[in-house]
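WARN retry 2 of 3 for item q-0093 after timeout on previous attempt; input resubmitted unchanged.
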Amino acid sequence: MLALGSTFTFFFGGINTVTRRRLSFAYSSGDIFEQSKAISAGVTAGIAVALAAGIATAFIANLTASSWSLIVVATIPVIGAFANILDNVRAAYNEHYITAILQTIAQCVIYGCAIIFSSQLDSVIVCAMVLNLPLALASVLTFVLLCRERRGLKFAVPRDLGHTIKSASYVVLADGAVSSALSGSLYGLGAVGATELAAWYGTLMRAFQALLAPILLIMLPLTSFVSLRWVKWNTLVRQRALRNVIAVAVIYGFSVGLTFALGGNHYLETFFPQIQHPSSITPLCVAAFFGVIVAQKMYVQLIYSVSEARQLSIRIFSSISFGTCAGLASQFWLSSTQALNLFCVSTSVTLLFAILSDQAFRRKAL
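OK item q-0093 returned
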């Protein structure tokens, strides 16, 4: 049920990104009223999305849940995703360490109590709250402290709520397409009966996702730093920042791809010897796919922090769609392994072209 609730939290990422960007720009210019408007619009949009997501989650959970408590459990990730918007408000001021401290304290207290009173935790709702409460509690506390520290912040009626949701939808369009490409390609292999290939691909994907998480965490304070100073930088500094980011993204993505190309099968042989390996060309194609996704994630994290980037979102969505259609169509005349190779190569090439062309366009437009 927690997984069901998590499925409906995808739109919150877009709201977080848009709220961070608007708030960072307002803070860097010293406009307290614009800061209030940005926070109010982000929180209000979060409430609207949380209500819609919560109702949808509860409705679907009601069709399969055996008790009302499971329906409540399904909505807990939605509440946590909304609380994360409050955390991102603090992140816009590049004060991540405050939330990190509060989260560490909350985890120690809540997990400690759960261990001490474990024999009494017989409620599925309580167990789900133990898993999700530390981050949500830290997010709420950091927002309350922020409002106390900056007393000039007042609630402002969000007159541009539609613009916030529209901007967030472009972020979701790109991020959702990439996430769907990862999970959908794995599901597709299983759906066509390529279970051995799916086991190999899925195990590598889990390792890749574990490596991707810290990259995104590192990019968060970096993009907040850039966003806070972007409006004060001249054209030359902005161009240099774009050039450096795309260079680092491509180099790091290449390093991740090379790591999987050279060490992916060795990792599987060491920890999962029962999984059979495909031909030598397939690990190279999958490694290239993973590497390009890393480069794309790093690049768009920066771009979304300083720009709405509608065209970039559309390009990324188009790249993923092209690769997906190529992979699906090839199933009619190619083997599952060859179809996976074609999907990975076509998606990698078009996605890399999308971010490189966007970077070149932005440097010329500055």
